[in-house]
Each structure stands twice: as structure tokens, then as C-alpha cells.
């Protein structure tokens, strides 16, 4: 009889956590009967009738696993309403593993532990994926994040074991949660990229093709294009990216992510006519921007992993990043890393080198990185961890 695993995720398939869930489902599908519980709220699942279609990035379709769902008005009301249905579902499935996608779902770990005991799965275990730094450590002045830690995240330490996306995150988690996490079973499994989607084109893209791509997307009379993919959070260090745009007005600076009032004000004050925003991309559109950019600039101060620069490198586009957190762990020796990460002048000098045609990526080190981030390598690490 095949072993069973239940993944629990509260984000849709288009978010990073939703796609991580699908990647994990694919990673273990050869050895487990896979179930996925989607904790649905209107914020992340606005179309209640939408089902999971074939996913080009993972190769998964709805028929490749059993999908379950629980609805709540928000995660806040779900704090109470998700508990009883989850216990019932665990008792029905009797999984060998209940796998939580992120610490914010930690409030449900004791529920799963109790359910596993109720269905006499004494060997059943709960696993928590610790993926990033912790909101209340990033924004200590925010009451919202303090409450989030107190009521939602705190109980994640009651999982039987833990997986991490980087050594940096594992060390941060050990410091934050203490012995209950640091002394528990756990391993670093990383994150995968879809090498079928994010890959170099069959024929290298010429400068003329890049120029035509810029014109097509409203960027005219620029000598090159820099790309940034991120949210507007303090840790993403968007201010440095915008200052870099001010320093190089003849280069188009594209940002993929929502535009906040704060960013709009900076753009207006600095008169940044070379900054372009695109809020919503599907994976194929993002790939084309990766491929046609001269480089991706990623000045983030804190990252649990940092996928965008790795995806860009997979597409044949160089990356320029800050020498911080897991970004440094993954990319040191692969591409230039700037320290301190707020030094816009240092970023600008490397941008000039790339626009002039200089290669800044260590191809051997990049190939090794992409191999570690392949689905094959990821699957092997996940299965070894669950064994």
C-alpha cells in the first residue's frame, strides 16, 4: 500500500507558496499517494468555481493528486473554523505525513498531531516548512506581526520535524525558536525551479531582438533593460533599485510587482521616467522578460531563498545581487554580490559592465547551482527527508 501525504496550503497556485505546494506534490508523487488541502479565503481564491488546470511549470494536473478544500472568510476566522474539519479530514485520510507549507499555519499543527493519534497513526508525523525570516523580527514595531507570531506561528514548533529552504533560514529559525526547533529533526531541502520553463532560448537573443522587445513593451530610446521582481517591503530594498535608476537614466528599469503609493511618490520626486512597472505576469511572460533583460538586479536585504535571480540565470540572463542572507548563500561565486547592499553606485558600475557586453557570471558555478535547484535534485532531497 502506498504511503500517504497531506500537504496544507492557504495560498492559490499562482503564488509562490501555491507553486511550492505543487512542486512538493510532484516531488513525492512517485512514492506517496498525494493529497492537498487548500485552505481557501476570498483574498487568495476569489473564483470559488475555479479548479486546478494542467500546470505547465510542474507538469501536475488535478488528477495527479486528491484535492480537498476548506473555506473561511479570512485566515483570521479560519483560526477557529479550520480546526474541526482538518481533524476530520486527517482521520479520514490517515496520512503518514501531514506537511504544512509555512509557519503561519502553525496554529493547526496541534490539531494534526491530535488527529494522527485519534486515527491510531502512531507513526504518522507532522512536518513544517520553514521558508523565510519571521515577520515580527523584520517589523518589530508592528502589532499585526506580533499577534501573528503569538497566535499563528508559535505552535509551529510542535511539528515533529522541519524542513528549510536554506542553511541561512535554518540558522535564523534556530535563533528565533530556540531548542524546540534547533534540536528537532530537520534538513535543508532548498527550492526548485522549473527548468523546462525557465531555460535559455534555443537561439541566443540578439541585441536587436532585445531592443524590439523593449519597444513592444513601451520602453523606447533606452540602451538596455534591468529587471527586478519583488514586493514593496522594506527588506526588498526597492529604494536602492530606484536610486540606481536615477543614476542610469538611459537604461530602462523594469519592476515586476505591485506599485505602492510610496514607490509612486519616489518615482515622481526623482522624476524617474525610465522606471516601468508590470503588476501581473504569468510564468511564460515572466520568462520572456528574464530572457530579454540585460540583467536582473536583486538588492534584497533579507531572503529565505531568493528564486528570481536563479530563474534569470537559468534563462541565460546575468544576476546582480546584494551580499545578504540566503542570496549570498546561493549565489556567492556565481555572480557579483554588492556589499553594502545600499550602495547604488556599486550596482551602477556593474550595470555599466553588463551593458558594455562583459560577462559577469561564472558559468561553471551557475551550472552547479542550477543542478541543485533542479526538480530531480529537489525530489531526491524531499524523499530522503521524509524517509
Structural features, described:
It is a single chain. The protein is of the alpha/beta class and 387 residues long. 41% of the residues lie in helices and 16% in strands. It has 17 helices and 13 strands. The protein has helices at residues 16-28, 75-81, 83-93, 109-118, 135-138, 143-153, 167-177, 179-182, 207-216, 238-247, 261-270, 283-292, 307-314, 325-331, 344-355, 363-372, 375-386, and strands spanning 3-9, 32-40, 66-71, 97-100, 125-130, 161-164, 186-188, 225-229, 252-256, 275-278, 295-298, 319-322, 337-338. The strands form two sheets. A seven-stranded parallel β-sheet has the order 3-2-1-4-5-6-7, sandwiched between helices. A six-stranded parallel β-sheet has the order 10-9-8-11-12-13, with helices on both faces. Helix 10 (238-247) crosses helix 15. The longest helix is centred in the N-terminal third of the chain and has 13 residues, at 16-28. The model is unreliable at 53-58 (pLDDT under 50).
Amino acid at each position: 500500500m502506498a504511503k500517504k501525504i497531506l500537504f496544507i496550503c492557504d495560498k492559490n497556485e499562482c503564488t509562490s507558496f501555491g507553486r511550492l505546494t505543487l512542486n512538493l506534490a510532484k516531488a513525492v508523487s512517485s512514492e506517496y499517494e498525494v493529497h492537498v488541502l487548500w485552505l481557501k479565503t476570498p483574498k487568495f481564491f476569489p473564483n470559488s468555481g475555479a479548479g486546478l488546470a494542467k500546470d505547465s511549470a510542474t507538469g501536475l494536473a488535478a488528477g495527479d493528486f486528491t484535492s480537498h478544500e476548506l473555506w473561511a472568510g479570512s485566515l483570521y476566522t479560519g483560526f477557529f473554523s479550520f480546526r474541526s474539519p482538518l481533524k476530520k479530514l486527517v482521520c479520514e485520510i490517515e496520512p503518514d505525513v501531514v506537511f504544512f507549507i509555512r509557519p503561519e499555519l502553525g496554529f493547526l499543527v496541534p490539531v494534526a498531531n491530535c488527529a494522527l493519534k485519534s486515527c491510531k497513526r502512531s507513526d504518522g508525523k507532522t512536518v513544517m516548512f520553514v521558508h523565510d525570516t519571521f515577520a515580527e523580527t523584520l517589523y518589530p514595531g508592528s502589532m499585526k506581526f506580533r499577534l501573528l507570531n503569538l497566535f499563528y506561528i508559535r505552535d509551529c514548533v510542535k511539528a515533529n520535524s522541519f524542513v528549510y529552504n536554506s542553511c541561512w533560514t535554518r540558522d535564523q529559525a534556530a535563533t528565533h525558536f530556540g531548542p524546540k526547533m534547533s534540536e528537532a529533526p530537520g534538513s535543508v531541502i532548498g527550492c526548485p525551479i522549473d527548468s523546462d520553463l525557465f531555460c535559455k532560448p534555443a537561439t541566443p537573443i540578439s541585441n536587436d531582438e532585445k531592443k524590439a522587445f523593449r519597444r513592444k513593451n513601451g520602453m523606447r530610446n533606452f540602451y538596455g533593460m534591468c529587471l527586478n521582481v519583488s514586493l514593496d517591503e522594506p527588506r526588498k530594498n526597492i529604494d536602492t533599485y530606484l536610486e540606481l535608476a536615477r543614476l542610469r537614466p538611459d537604461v530602462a528599469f523594469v519592476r515586476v510587482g505591485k506599485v505602492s503609493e510610496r514607490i509612486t511618490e519616489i518615482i515622481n520626486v526623482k522624476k524617474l521616467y525610465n522606471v516601468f512597472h508590470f503588476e501581473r505576469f504569468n510564468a511564460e511572460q515572466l520568462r520572456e522578460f528574464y530572457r530579454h533583460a540585460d540583467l536582473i538586479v536583486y538588492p534584497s536585504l533579507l531572503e529565505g531563498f531568493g528564486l528570481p535571480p536563479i530563474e534569470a540565470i537559468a534563462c541565460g540572463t546575468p544576476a546582480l545581487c546584494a551580499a545578504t542572507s540566503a542570496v549570498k548563500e546561493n549565489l556567492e561565486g556565481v555572480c557579483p554580490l554588492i556589499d553594502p547592499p545600499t550602495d547604488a553606485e556599486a550596482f551602477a558600475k556593474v550595470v555599466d559592465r553588463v551593458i558594455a557586453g562583459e560577462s559577469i557570471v561564472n558559468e561553471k558555478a551557475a551550472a552547479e547551482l542550477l543542478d541543485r535547484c533542479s526538480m530531480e535534485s529537489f525530489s531526491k532531497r524531499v524523499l530522503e527527508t521524509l524517509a
